[in-house]
C-alpha cells in the first residue's frame, strides 16, 4: 500500500519541481521574487490567495475540530467564508491601488509610505511581528506535513516534518513568488478535488447521512447540536469562539500580498469574489464533513485513527486504492506547503528587504538581494523546523496562535489606513507595538490561544466570560480602539490626506456612451480603478 501511495505522491512532486524550474526563468529581480512583477492574473492570484490561506489547518486542523466538536465546528467555516469576503471588499482593491501608487512590494513598504513614517519604527515593528508570528505559523505547517507523512507512509511525525521542510524550502528558494503562485494554483485544485471526493466516499462507506447521524447521536448527542449543547450566553460565546477567524483575514501578510501582485485592481472585486467565494464554500463544506463523518466511521469501527487531526489521511488510506490515496496525500501536503511557502517568502522579505535593505540601508544589487532572500528562507525554515519538532503539534491551536498575532499586529492598522484618511503614524506605531507585545504576553504567558477561567487576577474573570474565545478576537478590537484614539490626538500629513481623498473620492456618474444603469452596474471600487487608470494614477 505504501509503495502505491509513494508512486502517486512522487508524480505530484515531479509536477512541483517542473513548476519551480519554469518559474525560475521569470525570477531575476527583487520585484519579481516578492510580487511576481505585479503581472499575476486574477485567477492565479485568487486561487493562490486561498491556497495560502487554508493551509494544513483546512486539511488537518479543521477536520480534526469537526471530529471532536461535531456540528458546532461549522461556525469556523462560516467565519472563514465571511472573512474571505471581507478581505476582497475591505482590503484587496484599495491595497492594490495604494501599492501601485507607492511602488510597494511588501506590506511594511505600504504602511511606511501610507503613514509617512521617516523613523523606520513602522518597518521595524512590521518585521518583528512577521518574524515572530510567521515563524510560528511556518512551524504549524511543518507539523501538519509531519502528521500527513506519518499517516500515509507509516513513519514518525518528526521524520515527516523533516521531509516537508526539505521539499517545500527547495522550490521556494528556487522560484520565489512565481513558483509560489503557480504551485498554489495546482495545490488549490488538488485540495478542491480531495475535499469533494473524500466526504462522498465516507458517506457511501458508512451507509448514508442518516446512518452517520445515528452513530454520532449514540456516541455523543451534543455533537449534533449547532452550539455543542450550550444555550443562552454560552451558545453565543460558543459560536463567536469558532467564527472569530473572520477578523484575522484583515491582517495576514501572506494573503494580502496576493492583492498587491494582481495586474488589474478592478478584477479583485467581481471575478475575485466569485472565484474565491465558490472555492472557499466547497472546501470548507468538504473539510467539515470529512471530520464529521470520520468520527462516525471511527465510532462504527470502520476507521482507525490515533489523532483526530489525521482523520483525512486515514480516510484516504482506508477508502481508496493506494495510488489514488497517494494523490490525496499529495493534496494534503499541498495544502500545508501552499501556506508555508508563502509565509517563508513573507518572512524572508521582512528580514532581507525591510530590515537589512531598508532599515540598515545596505545597498546591494537586485540579484544579490534575491540571493540573500533565499538564504533567509533557509534560515527561517530551520527555525520553524525546530519549533515544529519541539512544539505541541496541535495544528488548530498552533495556527490560531500565529493567525492571531498577525491579525492583531496588522489587521487594525491596515484596515484603518485604507479607509480612514485621519490615521497617523503615531497611531500605527503605538497600535502595532501594543499588538505585538500583548499577543506575545496573552497567548504565551496568560491564556494560551484562548480565554480560560483559570487565568490569574482580572483576566480570570474575563476568561470566565469568554471561555474558549481566541484571545486575538478581543485584542483585535482593543488595538483598533487604541489606534483611533492616538490618531485623533495627533495630526496626519496634509499631502497624505489629499492623496487619500484623490485616490478614493467618489467618481461621478458618466453620461454619453454609457448609460447611468451601465455605470452603476459596476462597483464603486471598479469605477475608482477605471478613473485612476485613465488619469495615470495607478
Automatic annotation (TrEMBL):
Topology class, membrane: Multi-pass membrane protein
GO cellular component, one term: plasma membrane
Membrane-traversing stretches: 5-23, 69-91, 121-140, 160-182, 189-207, 227-251, 272-298, 323-351, 372-389, 395-420, 432-451, 471-490
UniProt keyword annotations, A-Z: Cell membrane, Ion transport, Membrane, Sodium, Sodium transport, Symport, Transmembrane, Transmembrane helix, Transport
Entries under InterPro entries matching the protein: Na/Glc_symporter_sf (IPR038377), Na/Pro_symporter (IPR011851), Na/solute_symporter (IPR001734), Sodium:Solute_Symporter (IPR050277)
Gene Ontology molecular functions: proline:sodium symporter activity; sodium ion binding
Subcellular location: Cell membrane
Coiled coil: none
One of the GO BP terms on file: proline transport
Reactions catalysed according to its record: L-proline(in) + Na(+)(in) = L-proline(out) + Na(+)(out)
Superkingdom field: Archaea
Cross-referenced PANTHER family: SODIUM/PROLINE SYMPORTER-RELATED (PTHR48086), SODIUM_PROLINE SYMPORTER (PTHR48086:SF3)
Similarity comment text for this entry: Belongs to the sodium:solute symporter (SSF) (TC 2.A.21) family.
NCBIfam families hit by this protein: sss
Name of the featured protein: Sodium:proline symporter
Lineage of origin: Archaea, Methanobacteriati, Methanobacteriota, Thermococci, Thermococcales
Amino acid at each position: 500500500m505504501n509503495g502505491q501511495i509513494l508512486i502517486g505522491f512522487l508524480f505530484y512532486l515531479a509536477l512541483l519541481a517542473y513548476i519551480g524550474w519554469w518559474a525560475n526563468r521569470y525570477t531575476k529581480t527583487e520585484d519579481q521574487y516578492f510580487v511576481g512583477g505585479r503581472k499575476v492574473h486574477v485567477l492565479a492570484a485568487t486561487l493562490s490567495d486561498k491556497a495560502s490561506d487554508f493551509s494544513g489547518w483546512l486539511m488537518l486542523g479543521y477536520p480534526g475540530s469537526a471530529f471532536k466538536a461535531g456540528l458546532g465546528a461549522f461556525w469556523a467555516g462560516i467565519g472563514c467564508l465571511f472573512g474571505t469576503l471581507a478581505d476582497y471588499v475591505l482590503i484587496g482593491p484599495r491595497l492594490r491601488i495604494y501599492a501601485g501608487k507607492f511602488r510597494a512590494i511588501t506590506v511594511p513598504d505600504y504602511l511606511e509610505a501610507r503613514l509617512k513614517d521617516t523613523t523606520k519604527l513602522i518597518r521595524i515593528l512590521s518585521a518583528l511581528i512577521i518574524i515572530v508570528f510567521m515563524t510560528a505559523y511556518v512551524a504549524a505547517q511543518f507539523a501538519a506535513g509531519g502528521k500527513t507523512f506519518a499517516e500515509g507512509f507509516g513513519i514518525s511525525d518528526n521524520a515527516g516534518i523533516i521531509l516537508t521542510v526539505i521539499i517545500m524550502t527547495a522550490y521556494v528558494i528556487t522560484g520565489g513568488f512565481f513558483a509560489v503562485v503557480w504551485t498554489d494554483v495546482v495545490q488549490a485544485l488538488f485540495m478542491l478535488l480531495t475535499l469533494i471526493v473524500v466526504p462522498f466516499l465516507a458517506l457511501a462507506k458508512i451507509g448514508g447521512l442518516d446512518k452517520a447521524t445515528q452513530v454520532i447521536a449514540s456516541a455523543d448527542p451534543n455533537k449534533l447540536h449547532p452550539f455543542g449543547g450550550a444555550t443562552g450566553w454560552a451558545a453565543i460565546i460558543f459560536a463567536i469562539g469558532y467564527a472569530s477567524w473572520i477578523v484575522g483575514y484583515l491582517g495576514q501578510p501572506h494573503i494580502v500580498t496576493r492583492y498587491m501582485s494582481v495586474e488589474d485592481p478592478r478584477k479583485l472585486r467581481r471575478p475575485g469574489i466569485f472565484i474565491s467565494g465558490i472555492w472557499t464554500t466547497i472546501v470548507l463544506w468538504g473539510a467539515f464533513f470529512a471530520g464529521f463523518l470520520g468520527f462516525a466511521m471511527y465510532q462504527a469501527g470502520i476507521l482507525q485513527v490515533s489523532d483526530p487531526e489525521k482523520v483525512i489521511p486515514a480516510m484516504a488510506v482506508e477508502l481508496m486504492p493506494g495510488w489514488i490515496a497517494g494523490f490525496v496525500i499529495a493534496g494534503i501536503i499541498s495544502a500545508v506547503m501552499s501556506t508555508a511557502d508563502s509565509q517563508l517568502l513573507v518572512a524572508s522579505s521582512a528580514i532581507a528587504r525591510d530590515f537589512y535593505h531598508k532599515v540598515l540601508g545596505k545597498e546591494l544589487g537586485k540579484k544579490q538581494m534575491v540571493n540573500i532572500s533565499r538564504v533567509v528562507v533557509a534560515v527561517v525554515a530551520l527555525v520553524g523546523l525546530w519549533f515544529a519538532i519541539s512544539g505541541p503539534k496541535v495544528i488548530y491551536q498552533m495556527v490560531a496562535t500565529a493567525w492571531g498575532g498577525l491579525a492583531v499586529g496588522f489587521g487594525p492598522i491596515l484596515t484603518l489606513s485604507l479607509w480612514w484618511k485621519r490615521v497617523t503614524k503615531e497611531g500605527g506605531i503605538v497600535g502595532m507595538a501594543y499588538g505585538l507585545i500583548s499577543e506575545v504576553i496573552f497567548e504565551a504567558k496568560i491564556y494560551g490561544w484562548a480565554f480560560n477561567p483559570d487565568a490569574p487576577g482580572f483576566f480570570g474573570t474575563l476568561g470566565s466570560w469568554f471561555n474558549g474565545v481566541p484571545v486575538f478576537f478581543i485584542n483585535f478590537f482593543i488595538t483598533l480602539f487604541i489606534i483611533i484614539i492616538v490618531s485623533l490626538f495627533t495630526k496626519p500629513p496634509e499631502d497624505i490626506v489629499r492623496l487619500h481623498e484623490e485616490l478614493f473620492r467618489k467618481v461621478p456618474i458618466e453620461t454619453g456612451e454609457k448609460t447611468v444603469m451601465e455605470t452603476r452596474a459596476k462597483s464603486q471600487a471598479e469605477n475608482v480603478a477605471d478613473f485612476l487608470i485613465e488619469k495615470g494614477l495607478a
